[in-house]
Design brief:
119 residues, 11 strands, 0% helix, mainly beta, globular, four-stranded antiparallel sheet
C-alpha cells in the first residue's frame, strides 16, 4: 500500500516563500526515489525536484537555487522549500513516490496541492 498526502500550498506574492510537505505511508515496497512534480494550466506535468538519497538530488533548471527538497526518514516525509517564488511557479504540485517490489517499479501520486503566486 502506498498513500501520499500533500500539504502546504496556498496563495503568496512573488518573492515570498512556501513549504510543501508530503507524508508517505508505504508498506510492502522499497522506495527508489521521491520527488515533486507540478502541472500548470494547459501544460504537461513536469519534474521539479527529486531526492534519491541525502546526496542524490535533482532540480529542474527553472528552480535551481530557489527550491530545496529534503527527506526526513523518521517521519517519512518529503518537503519542498520554495523561496523567491515567481508567477511562473503557479501550478498544482504533486508528490511522487517511485517504489519497487519483486524487481518491478511503480509510480504513485498524491492528490496535489495548489500553489498560486501573484505578481
Amino acid at each position: 500500500q502506498v498513500q501520499l498526502m500533500e500539504s502546504g500550498g496556498g496563495l503568496v506574492q512573488a518573492g515570498e516563500s512556501l513549504r510543501l510537505s508530503c507524508t508517505a505511508s508505504i508498506s510492502g515496497f522499497s522506495i527508489n526515489h521521491m520527488g515533486w512534480y507540478r502541472q500548470a494550466p494547459g501544460k504537461q506535468r513536469e519534474l521539479v525536484a527529486r531526492i534519491i538519497s541525502a546526496d542524490g538530488t535533482y532540480y529542474a533548471d527553472s528552480v535551481k537555487g530557489r527550491f530545496t527538497i529534503s527527506r526526513e526518514y523518521a517521519r517519512n516525509t518529503v518537503d519542498l522549500q520554495m523561496n523567491s517564488l515567481k508567477s511562473e511557479d503557479t501550478a498544482v504540485y504533486y508528490c511522487n513516490a517511485n517504489v519497487r517490489r519483486d524487481a518491478r517499479s511503480y509510480n504513485y501520486w498524491g492528490q496535489g496541492t495548489q500553489v498560486t503566486v501573484s505578481s
